[in-house]
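Checklist before submission:
- one chain only
- standard amino acids only
- sequence pasted in full

Submission:
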Amino acid sequence: MAKVGFSYERYAASDSIHYKHLLSKGLDEKKVKAISALKHEPGWMTDIRLKALKIYMKKPMPRWGVDLSGIDFDSLHYYASAIDEKYDKWDKVPKGIKKTFDRIGIPEAEKKFLAGSSAQYDSEVLYHNLKKEWESQGVIFTDMDTGLKEHPDIVKKYFGSVVPMDDNKFAALNTATWSGGSFVYVPAGVSVKIPLQAYFRINTKSAGQFERTMIIAEEGANVHYVEGCSAPIYSASSLHAAVVEIIAKKDSRVRYTTIQNWSNNVYNLVTKRAVAHEDAVVSWLDGNMGSRATMKYPCIMLRGKGARGEVMSVAFAGKGQAQDTGAKMIHEAANTTSRITSKSISQGGGRSAYRGLVKVLKGAKNCKSFVQCDAYILDKLSRSDTYPRIDSEEESSTVGHEAKVGKISSSKLFYLMSRGIPEKEALAMVVLGFIESFTRELPMEYAVELNRLIEMQMENAVA
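Returned file contents:
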């Protein structure tokens, strides 16, 4: 396998940016009102924020999953913005910020592969663009703040309908402090044939990023949304607590792809959930790299007859990292089907865990679900755990679970090394083969990027 020249530096470097708005550290009612005022929001949204803040303050921290004791909530900036305007051309973006996105390759990707693109820097989306071909068909792809201003009735109808503010502590925090994120609306019968992409960048030291994304696919619509995330390396911790709400109407298809590559100072604690109506199909492709700790369990509520859901995920836990990931499938209607495929790699003392739920409600007849968890542990210091939960109230349902944990076969390595391939490269080849079922579902450019990230992580896999 040829060496690929690749460095995390293009993700990890921080920028010296002057911030136009940078709230002092900590969170209280005054700061929540300040965020809402800066955005010129309607009173009903301010009221939602303040109600959510009270819920957040009362809810305890999770006592399960990963260790969250390293988060100092009082030391975080809950809003940081370098600009007051948004741009629809890359050459208008301020040079210092544009340099970051040029380094990551976002403008080039937009030219070649995307129907539309959006870029968020800390708390605000500073760039978005949708190709005229889709705009003329009524597709809306903008940032969530603009969505609220220009389509308040849609936002008011669906905001918090899939992820209520009291769902968990971090959903409440997001509802109180949300800023940026994507608003996607696809009219009935419209198929967006190439992906829409959003990229989220944390740059500020000791910052929280709380984007809110809403995707609505009307009857018979089809859309693929891709997001990427990164942050520079600091000694102080940052927090990413996003919320995603997807509404897939009858016969629609929504695919949500995430490739997250956070630096090891970021706590990644997100709530992502979809509702699939009659004969709708929702699929998540979820790639988790980096972060100090990740807790992420995409959920699909199969609410209409014949709805289908699929989650495919890959997690890589290296030194000092904990990847607690999985999925939830809630079968609420008859003849619904779901599949969860989870793959994880642990090395250098990293810990990976699959945590999942398959629930079949009474009356949801003839439902089928299958869960498959595969894990590689690359050394004696690392750990992998599986915490599946199956809760079926319907006798006619069929639910299966399969889990495998193992080490890389020495015979595979010997075979490759006997043909002149160095041990590190042979090990990387085996790992890339292990996740191939995931990468083949990605658009080509994202598959290449994920493979490069895995190769980079594998550099330290062999002493």
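Reviewer check: Residues 12-296 form one domain.
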